[in-house]
Structure formats: C-alpha cells, structure tokens
Amino acid sequence: MLKIADMEFESRLFTGTGKFSSSQVMLEAITASKSQLVTVAMKRIDLKTGLDDLLTPLRQAGVRLLPNTSGARNAKEAVFAAELAREMLGTSWIKLEIHPDPKYLMPDAIETLEAAKTLCDKGFIVMPYVHADPVLCRRLEEVGCAAVMPLASPIGSNQGLVTESFLKIIIEQARVPVVIDAGIGAPSQAARAMELGADAVLVNTAIASSASPIVMAECFKEAVQCGRRAFEAGLGRVQTGAVHTSPLTGFLNT
Amino acid sequence: MILIHINNVAQSLTQPTSLAELILAQNIALDSIALVLNTQVVPRNRWQTILCQHEDKLELFSAVAGG
C-alpha cells in the first residue's frame, strides 16, 4: 500500500478536478477512477457570479483533497496560497506548484525549493511539482518534502513520458514517494510510469478531455494497477540481441 | 458609516458587522472559503469576533477545479 506522510492509499492514481465539462461528470469520473486523493485550486471569489460549490460533492465522495498553489509566481505567493488552503480546507497537505511562465508552465526550481523549505518548517505536508531533475528532487527530500512530483511532460500536453530517463534516476534515488505528474496522456503511459517503479501518477487532462471521461477514468485505474503489478512482478532484462525462448535443437535432428 | 472593500468592491456598513456576518450577507457558506483581512489570513474561529473597520480590505477565496 502507498504511504505518504502518515496516510495510506489503496489507489495509486491521483486525479485532478480541472477541465471537466460539468461537476457531475467530474464526480462520476473520480468515482470511476477509485482515486483517493484529488487536487483542487483556489481562486478569489467573483462576487458578481457567486460561488461554485466544488467542495460539497467532493467531500461527499469521500476523497481526500490536495489543494495546489497554482497561480503562485514565487515562493512568497505559494506560501500564502498554502496558508489559505489550510484555513479553507482544514488540511496541511499542499501540492506546491510555482510556474510563472504561462506558455509552458515550467516549474520554477529555485522558488519551489525555497517555498518547500518554508512550508515544511511550518508543518505542511509538501508535495512539490517539479521538473524531472534528480538533483532537485534530492534537495526537496532533504528539506522535508513528503513526496516529489516530477513532470512527465508539460501540463495538459498529453505528450507522455518525455522525461523517462530522468524519472528512472529520480525513482532509483528517492526515499520518499515519487508521483509522476503532468503530461500523461494515455493509460499505456500511466502503466509505463508504474512499471518504472513510480509510486503513483496524477492524471487530469487525459481523463477530463476524453470524449468519455468516465470510461477513460476506469481505463487509467486499470492501467495503474496493471503497471504496478508488473513492477512488483519484475520486468525482464532488456537485451541487445535475441535470446531464444524455444529449443533450437532436437526437433528435426535427433 | 464604515466603508470597506470586499474583493475590490466597495461596500458601506451602517452598523458594527463581524466578518462572519459580512460573509453570510453575501450568501456564502462559512465552511467553503478562506478570508484575508488586510493581507493577513484570518483563522475561521475569529470571524465571529472581529468587527469590520473603516477602510478594511477583505479578500475572499474559494476552492475551484484544478489539476
């Protein structure tokens, strides 16, 4: 079973709540995914349009909420966002994300490390979204992060495991759970991430933007389970040449 | 008359009003938001006792869908 900080999770598929066509579809997809940890963002309320009640159905669904700091452009804003989230949701868990660049949403490593240190010191359970940088992941672990969340490819891009070689190094070195986040676009890619030994994956766009989000959520659930089982079973070694699986002698000639 | 700003919208109060009363007057449930008063996050358990002051700047935040 996956353990992050003091919480155990049966499901290794975390999901986001963004980009769904309706709250009802989102809720049904999350239910179908069997995800137990679900991300939410925070926003200043527009008093003219009122409040869209996202929390009540999610709380009723029994999932644990993981607020993110999306929109923060530096460490100071991210710490502020985390404190807001703790007050709003009553959780000290935070997905730390600082991406000032609006085009590629690349996480800012320097600000992220600084914010992570501050938040860990303040008692938050910090899960930072970062580039697939093995050195940075070690540094984040050293300042007390409960997990690391390296990206597979740019957020929402569905490009899959572009960073695979580096994800392998991160997984090999990490002493905290590794959650592959961002860019996973197909169940086969989620399965691959799990086969590599990732502890979990976070998927949002690939489910939400599917023509059938609920079916896709089920597909991801099964892919993650399958990939994890394959990892635990142990993949065979990759070889350059052919190695026969059938006897090559004794059939035609005695 | 007490003049305050909620999310950059000016509002005048004719009588002493707590933060909690102010939020409820906006038809917003207390358990669904976070409140920032003059750049400081205010814990929920103090919303009943803090009264709005002239020129206060309040910011209300809610959870929205995100990845």
From TrEMBL, chain B:
CDD domains: Ubl_ThiS. It holds the Pfam family ThiS. It comes from the Bacteria. Gene3D superfamilies: 3.10.20.30. PANTHER family: SULFUR CARRIER PROTEIN THIS. This is Sulfur carrier protein ThiS.
